[in-house]
Amino acid sequence: MNVGILGTGKLAVTLGRAWAAAGHSLSVAGRNPLHAGGAVQQIGPAAEAVDPADLATRVDVLVIAVAWEGLEAALSLVGGPQGALAGKTVIDCTNPVDYTTGALKPVSGSAAALVAHTAPGAHVVKALHLFAGASWPYVGPQELAPVVAICGDEPGALDRAAALIQDLGGQTAVVGGLSGARQLEEAAGFVMRVVAAGYNPRLAVPDVDPALLRAAETTTG
Ligand SMILES: NC(=O)c1ccc[n+]([C@@H]2O[C@H](COP(=O)([O-])OP(=O)(O)OC[C@H]3O[C@@H](n4cnc5c(N)ncnc54)[C@H](OP(=O)(O)O)[C@@H]3O)[C@@H](O)[C@H]2O)c1
Asked: Which stretches make up the Pyrroline-5-carboxylate reductase catalytic N-terminal domain (predicted)?
């Protein structure tokens, strides 16, 4: 795939490197061409810095990796409000969360809903916001691969997101439509709150084996 990355910071570089290693081409754009050039240098030869105005036409999938505060401005740079992303798969990785406390930043609906509103016609998927970029690529036993919970309304867009997650080494759990994005974003806030309290969030959720749960339900039901 030709993957567009809107954003030139840490997440853009770590995802870009992992997807480049998996054989994808990357087009990278941001508000600062120098930062886009720097990100491309770090990703390697599979990546190209492009003018934000050209990004939408060049890519199969657009991944949004900008600071939450810059979300609307960044979408404007690529022509989102003018319909440039209509029909495109757009993966929203942003976190409207204060990283130091886990507090959610004020947003009407969800960040992903704001993307859908600001880029009319885009096939928005909320994904890849919860795990640190440095988690990717995952190399290890498949049964222990990170499970990336995603949501969206368009099956083709969910499939494309799942394919990119697979190329990072992750597993994908589709948990519903885009109306569920706020819950996924709140999960990031929850993780940060547990971290701020001094604990490992991996130990703050129950260990539930769905197969055992179903078997128990069958027995009792
Ligand atoms: N880092 C991670 O591991 C990780 C993991 C999951 C999700 N996320 C989420 O991914 C997003 C990016 O995180 P990051 O760690 O890559 O942050 P970062 O390194 O600070 O990079 C932020 C990016 O957002 C751009 N930006 C900021 N304000 C903007 C504005 N007003 N208009 C246009 N662009 C703007 C920055 O451009 P300039 O360079 O010009 O300032 C930069 O390209 C955040 O929403 C974060 O919550 C990060």
From this structure: 3-96
